[in-house]
Amino acid sequence: MSEPKKVPVGVSARHIHLTQEHIEILFGQGARLTEMKPLSQPGQFAANETVAVFGPKGSFAKVRILGPARSATQLEVSRTDAFVLGLQPPVRESGITEGTPGMRIVALLEK
């Protein structure tokens, strides 16, 4: 009998992926994300930079940005987080953003 195969399972807290264009709008022309710590996925990292997100009903401060820059800006939240924000996001594969509700994103600049 062969050894059972192990599959890594991870759960991530709310986070956001940003395009390079949105990184520069939020943090200034030429801005780049800086790595706080690597993620389990090779080449990906939790950035030092954070943003606040505002939905129609509520908000969250200090939402971690995951890098590197992506081809689409996308907030990933739990169903409970969506309720707090007042959003009705669809459940679908990452990167498919057509027809999703919008929100306001504000850069948090540390001093």
Dominant shape: globular
Low-confidence parts: none
| Average pLDDT number | 89
Estimate the helix proportion, in percent. 10-25%
Assembly state: single chain
Name the helix and strand elements from N-terminus to C-terminus, one letter apiece: EHEEEEHE
General description of the model:
The chain is α+β, with helices and mostly antiparallel strands and 111 residues long. The protein is built from two helices and six strands. Strands 1, 2, 3, 4, 5 and 6 form a six-stranded mixed beta sheet that branches. A hairpin with a 6-residue loop joins strand 2 and strand 3 (45-54). The mean pLDDT is 89.
Short structural description:
The chain has 111 residues and is α+β, with helices and mostly antiparallel strands. The chain has helices at residues 20-27, 79-85, and strands spanning 15-17, 35-38, 45-54, 59-67, 74-76, 104-108.
Q: What characteristics describe this protein?
A:
2 helices; alpha+beta; 111 residues; single chain; globular
How are the elements arranged and paired?
Blueprint: E1 15-17, H1 20-27, E2 35-38, E3 45-54, E4 59-67, E5 74-76, H2 79-85, E6 104-108
Parallel strand pairs: 1-4
Antiparallel strand pairs: 1-5, 2-3, 3-4, 3-6
